[in-house]
Amino acid sequence: MPRHSLVVRLTHWINAIASLALIVSGVAILLAHPRLYWGETGAVGAPSLIDLPIPFIFGHSGWGRYLHFLAAWVGTISGVVYVSAGIVTRRFGHELLPSKAEWSWTHVQRVIVDHARLRLSAHASFQSYNVLQRLTYVAVIFVLGPLVLMSGLAFSPMLASATPWLVGVFGGQQSARTIHFFAAAAIVAFLIVHVAMVAATGFTARMRSMIVGDPGSAAEQL
Amino acid sequence: MSGLSRRRLIVSGLSAAASVTGVGAMIHVAGRNGLIPPDHTGLFGVGETLTYAAQRVIAGDLALAREFSRNDISTVIPMNGPPPETDTYQRLLDGEFRDWRLQVDGLVTRPRSFSLADLKGYPAHTQITHQACEEGWSFVAEWTGVRLSHVLELVGVDARARYVVFFPFDRFWESIDMADALHPQTFLAYGMNGQELPLGHGAPLRLRVARQLGYKSIKYLSRIVVAESMADFGQGLGGANPEEGYSWWAGI
């Protein structure tokens, strides 16, 4: 794990707060209609793709929507700053893209097997990310993040008018809503594993390094 | 202090100063161009202003909502909420809306009222569009009516006008800005899917705002007021929905 720059530490915690707000408000909005559809339209009585096993609970989408869009702005602006800084400083290339040596299948396989057997310390460095971390962060930053944002925008009626191609990409406004849900669920799964791995591989040192930038002496004992 | 960290400090300081100036300039420009929604106060107001201004700038005034074919009309079209239970509305309903009038006044040069026959006498506009509820469900339907811009032209809108406010027979009054009011897909609908507008969908007349969520397309219209500011209406937030915690801008 490289020493985190100030931009990385700031945007990390801003995005942590924004993500938490987006998840809470997203659930509040979803409760008003916990059904997912495919295509342009969907309503109670029309065929659904998935009926989520939670009850319809009304009255929380007002504050839910206000908070969701405020947090989306905060998260998007912070995400753009983070990605721009990563590209300008070339840190993405060095720290997040797997190196040539890591691209070998035998190497990836070994890291996966070690993780499956919970032999985490072999790959839990404070100097650099292992190949699974690199691939996961790249997938979250460059695939899931943009996907959750674009699919969310695709079922805005104003943007469906201004950029109808965006609705077309997702196969309809209800399809976009369904994809938005699964992209968000994948991000929630990532966050759970992310926090669990931090807890499992030296919580204090890792929190310290993401707050002040330096893992401190605790890291040396690991 | 090393040269490198001094340079970083100066760059950070300049970036911060530029950001603050940039945000200040944006707020100024947004205010001058009518890009600040009535419910702009508080922390949520920051998000609302960003969303409203960004969508207005990206979509412009004239981007059109997608129109569908008759084959796309949904077979399931839920009705949301009962018709108004007021005596006035019930009396008009009993008389099959023969005595119903739409009053149009406020910042207009020729305030007047319109009967249903008056409105049906103007050029009819039909469109098949998607309507989504903020809850998450949606449908496609065909609507027929008269463009709001046509009615506004007949009464003569004052140059100061910035909002059009809609009062129904129930409590869900709403407002839209002039850009949406004059939009070619914003109209007063008296027909749906080739029939008279059904009771549960807002008979005898409802608003249709194609580029916003369903709660802006209010039903059971009674009166339209053209205004310069929303400050004098209710709590000044621009509608019954914002007063109950739902954002005034429903383009997202």
Plain-language structure description:
The complex is a heterodimer of chains A (222) and B (252). Chain A has 222 residues and is an all-alpha fold. Chain A is elongated. Chain A starts with 5 loop residues before the first helix and ends in an 11-residue tail after the last helix. The mean pLDDT of chain A is 94. The termini of chain B are far apart. The chains are: A mainly alpha (222), B alpha+beta (252). The interface between A and B is large, with 40 and 44 residues.
Key terms for this structure?
heterodimer; A: 222 residues; elongated; B: 252 residues; alpha+beta; 5-stranded mixed sheet; 7 helices; 10 strands
In short:
The complex is a heterodimer of chains A (222) and B (252). Chain A has 222 residues and is an all-alpha fold.
Write the layout of secondary structure elements.
The complex is a heterodimer of chains A (222) and B (252).
Chain A lengths: L5 H25 L4 E2 L13 E2 L9 H28 L2 H6 L8 H12 L14 H24 L2 H6 L1 H7 L2 H28 L2 H9 L11
Antiparallel strand pairs in A: 1-2
Chain B lengths: L2 H30 L9 H18 L27 H8 L7 E5 L5 E3 L1 H5 L4 E8 L5 E10 H8 L7 E6 L5 E4 H4 L4 E7 L2 E2 L9 E4 L11 E7 L12 H4 L9
Parallel strand pairs in B: 1-10
Antiparallel strand pairs in B: 1-2, 3-4, 4-7, 5-6, 5-10, 7-8, 7-9
